[in-house]
Amino acid sequence: MRQLLLILLLTFTAATSWAKIPDEDDILRKTMDSSSPYYYTSLMVRYNNLERLTEEEYHYLYYGFAYQDDYRPTAINNAFDQLYSSLPTINTESPDSKELAYIISLCNEAMILDPFSPTILNMLVFAYGQMGDKKREEAYFYHLHGIMETIKSSGDGRGEKYPMHIIMFSHATDVVSSMGLASKRAEIISRKVEYIPLVAPRKMPDGKKVRGFYFDYSRIYRNKPEEVTFKKKRTWQFNGLKPREYK
User: Fold this and answer.
1) What strand order describes the sheet that includes 193-203?
2) What is the pLDDT of residues 67-96, one digit of tens each?
3) What are the boundaries of each domain within the chain?
4) Helices (H), the chain
5) Dihedral over Cα of 45, 49, 51, 56: its sign
6) How far apart (Å, rounded) are the C-alpha atoms in residues 201 and 181?
């Protein structure tokens, strides 16, 4: 299963230009304005209807979620935990219809708390592909591509000054895993930025080696409830590493 999912995500390893550092004032203004083409309610309806969105629309949809009442990044996602627990038992070579229906059901429930999870979107691509539903398979694949490119275009992630911006911790792990890279335990290096070191340095097209990637996680704890602490299990990783913990 993990190998299969990694193969799906490796589609998104192509280099991307990063020039879309989120402008919070701009995002808030445009997603809250009902006359704006980026009005959040309209974007989310189209996303849920599996419409193809533009690069700009994915940008406002992803980062605009941080201003919605449904945004609860520290909440426990029981459906996702169940999905994770069921993965080792799934027959990836020839899953039966009941297994696939179960996966889809858990994914839909998990998306209530995390509608842009690359992990969940990737599972939906797999499930619908196995069912022969090409329309939904392609729709979720396109959503997956849009979300991954949104994150990767928000910064190069090669230094603390230009981190990639995320709205959920697990999204950072998914981005690194999508590059086919094995990573170590994430390190919180400031109130806004975490660093995910790689098991082995990666040589970039410009010849420079990257030893890890930086991610801006500031939105996650912007309105942190008092009872929430950093030590919490995160999602499973595509490259087979165990779930992470934060302290």
Assistant:
1) 164-165, 209-216, 193-203, 187-188
2) 999 999 999 999 999 988 887 888 778 888
3) 2-165
4) 2-9, 24-32, 40-48, 55-64, 78-86, 97-110, 118-131, 134-152, 169-178
5) positive
6) 9
